[in-house]
Write a structure and sequence with these properties.
Strand content: 15-25%
Distance between the termini: 45 Å
Shape: globular
Strand order of the largest sheet: 3-2-1-4-5-7-6-8-9
Helix content: 25-40%
CATH class of the domain at 13-248: Alpha Beta
Radius of gyration: 26 Å
Number of strands: 22
Structural class: alpha/beta
C-alpha cells in the first residue's frame, strides 16, 4: 500500500508510505465476508493488505514495490502496471477492495493515467475539478470494478473532510453504496507524514443512501469491524457545512450553537462587508523586492518603490503603519516592491537594473515572460487590511495604515461596507470568530491552518457573546486535531 506525500522528494521511494499492519489487517477484516471473496488492492505497494487474504489481486505501478510484493506473496496475482489504464480495459470484477491509494497532487497527475482516470470518472457520472488529487478517482475506478453488493475500505487523506472536490466524491459514493462511513483519526497513522489520514468504508455496491456515517477516534486500534458511527443527513451537511465533514469532530451542541450564531440578528460574514483576495505574484521575488540599501545603491527613484508585506508572520495585533515600515527599513529588510507602470518612459537607473544579469534571469521566469510588460508586476493593490493566509494558533488580521501592498502569501481585505466592518471586526478576538477560523479554514499539516479566500469570506462575526465558553472549548478541540502543540491560550 502506498500513500504518496505531496511533499515527497526524489529519492524517498517515490514518497511512498506503506500501510501499518494493524490498519491493513483491519481493512481486510471489514470487507472480506467469505474465504472465497476475491479482493482487489489497486495500489498494493509491497503487499501489506494482500498478505491478509489468500484470494487477492494486486496492481502496483512502482516496479520495485511490485517486485517486493511478488517475492513476498508468490501465489498472489500482482501486476506491475498503471491502475487506471488497466481498470479501463479489464473485464475482471471483485467482491471487495481495500487499499491505500497514492495521494498525488493534480500537477503531478498527468498523461495516459490521468486521461484514463478522467474517462472512468466521466463514465460513472463524476466530474472532478482540475485541483483534485489522484486518490479520489482511484476510489471511483475501484468501485466500478466491484460486483453488486461489493464492499471497499481505504486509507484516505483527511482532505475528504474539507476539500471541495471531496463533495463530488461523496455524492458519487452515496449514490453507489448502501452505507458510506468516514472514520476520522486524531493521532497520525503515518507519523512521518505531515498530512493526516482518515479511513473510508463503503458497503453494498449498487445501493444508495442519504446519510454519511461518521466516526471519530483518538487513536486507531485493530478491529474486525468499522467503529460505531453516527448517521448524518448528507443534504443537511451540504446546506449547513458546504459538504465538509470536519465540523463533525465537534459535539452536536457546539455545532448547533455555531449554526445558531450564524442565524442571529446582527451576525455577519466577511463577504457581507469586504472582498478578499490574494496579493500580487511578482514572478521573481528576489529581483522585484529590494532592501533600502539596494534601492539606494541602484538609485531607484522613490516613486517606483512601494512598501509591501511579504509574509503573514509579519502581521500582528497592531496595524501596519509608517512606524512598522520604518523598523523594517532600519533592519534593511527587502520590504520595497519595484512597481513599474506597464507603459511610459523609464528612468535610466530603472532601465539599467532591468538589464542586469538578475533582470535577464527574471524575465525568463514563467510569470514574467507571459505578461505584456515583463517588468510590470500586475495585481498590486493597497488593501484596507491584511489577513494571514497560513497561521499557527490565532489568525492575524492587521489594518493597513500606510498604503502598503502585499504578496500572494497574504490576503488583501478591501472593505465594501464601513459600518458593517466596524461592527464585525470589533469581535475579531471573540471565541466565536476564532472557532469560525478553524471551521471555515482547513489544516495544512504541521499544525498550520490555511484560509483560502473563499473560506475567509465565510468567517462569522457576531456581537452576541452567549456561548463563549462553548466556542472556546470547541476551538481548543479543533486545534488539537490539527496537532497544534504548545500554543498560547485563546483569549476570552
Amino acid at each position: 500500500m502506498n500513500f504518496v506525500s505531496p511533499s515527497a522528494t526524489t529519492g524517498k521511494v517515490a514518497g511512498q508510505f506503506f500501510t501499518p499492519n494493524h490498519v491493513a489487517k483491519s481493512l481486510v477484516s471489514w470487507v472480506v465476508r467469505d474465504p472465497l471473496d476475491q479482493l482487489l488492492d489497486p495500489s498494493c505497494g509491497e503487499g501489506a493488505i494482500l498478505a491478509h487474504h489468500s484470494r487477492s489481486r494486486g496492481v502496483e505501478r512502482d516496479p520495485y514495490a511490485a517486485w517486493v510484493a511478488r517475492e513476498r506473496l508468490p501465489d498472489t496475482n500482482i501486476d506491475n502496471i498503471d491502475f487506471f489504464t488497466w481498470a479501463a480495459d479489464t473485464a475482471e470484477r471483485f467482491d471487495c477492495a481495500a487499499g491505500n491509494p497514492p495521494f498525488i497532487r493534480y500537477q503531478n497527475f498527468k498523461g495516459l493515467s490521468k486521461a484514463a482516470a478522467t474517462l472512468i470518472c466521466q463514465t460513472n457520472g463524476v466530474a472532478f475539478s482540475g485541483l483534485s488529487s489522484a486518490w479520489a478517482p482511484f476510489l471511483v475506478a475501484t468501485s466500478a470494478l466491484l460486483e453488486k453488493g461489493g464492499r471497499m475500505a481505504f486509507v484516505v487523506p483527511a482532505e475528504i473532510g474539507h476539500a471541495t472536490y471531496a463533495v463530488a466524491l461523496l455524492d458519487y459514493l452515496l449514490a453507489s453504496f448502501s452505507k458510506v462511513q468516514v472514520i476520522a483519526i486524531r493521532e497520525k497513522l503515518f507519523p512521518r507524514l505531515s498530512e493526516d489520514c482518515w479511513l473510508l468504508y463503503c458497503e453494498d455496491f449498487g445501493g444508495k443512501t442519504e446519510a454519511v456515517h461518521f466516526s471519530k477516534v483518538d487513536r486507531f486500534e485493530e478491529c474486525k469491524a468499522p467503529p460505531s458511527s453516527e448517521a448524518h443527513n448528507w443534504a443537511d451537511l451540504k446546506r449547513d457545512w458546504s459538504g465538509r465533514l470536519r465540523p463533525l469532530i465537534l459535539s452536536s451542541a457546539a455545532r448547533d450553537a455555531y449554526l445558531t450564531a450564524g442565524r442571529l440578528r446582527g451576525a455577519l460574514r466577511f463577504a457581507d462587508f469586504a472582498k478578499i483576495g490574494i496579493g500580487y505574484i511578482s514572478g521573481a521575488n528576489d529581483f522585484f523586492h529590494l532592501s533600502p540599501s539596494q534601492a539606494a545603491g541602484l538609485g531607484i527613484p522613490e516613486e517606483f518603490l512601494v512598501p509591501t508585506v511579504r509574509r503573514g508572520k509579519h502581521l500582528g495585533a497592531l496595524p501596519i503603519d509608517d512606524d512598522t515600515i520604518a523598523r523594517w527599513k532600519a533592519a534593511d529588510e527587502a520590504c520595497l516592491l519595484l512597481a513599474i507602470p506597464p507603459t511610459g518612459d523609464l528612468p535610466p537607473q530603472v532601465t539599467a537594473y532591468l538589464d542586469t544579469d538578475e533582470g535577464l534571469e527574471a524575465r525568463r521566469s514563467y510569470k514574467c515572460r507571459t505578461r505584456g510588460s515583463w517588468y510590470s508586476v500586475p495585481g498590486v493593490i493597497r488593501p484596507d487590511y491584511f489577513l494571514q493566509y497560513m497561521s499557527g494558533a490565532d489568525v492575524k488580521l492587521a489594518r493597513n495604515d500606510c498604503a502598503a501592498a502585499c504578496t500572494n502569501s497574504v490576503h488583501g481585505v478591501q472593505i465594501t461596507d464601513m459600518r458593517k466592518s466596524t461592527i464585525a471586526l470589533s469581535t475579531w478576538e471573540a471565541p466565536l470568530t476564532k472557532l469560525s477560523c478553524e471551521l471555515e479554514g482547513h489544516p495544512l499539516g504541521g499544525g498550520m491552518l490555511k484560509l483560502e479566500p473563499r473560506e475567509a469570506t465565510r468567517l462569522l462575526f457576531s456581537p452576541d457573546r452567549e456561548g463563549d465558553e462553548l466556542f472556546f472549548s470547541a476551538t481548543e478541540i479543533m486545534r488539537t486535531w490539527r496537532h497544534l502543540g504548545g500554543h498560547a491560550p485563546i483569549g476570552r
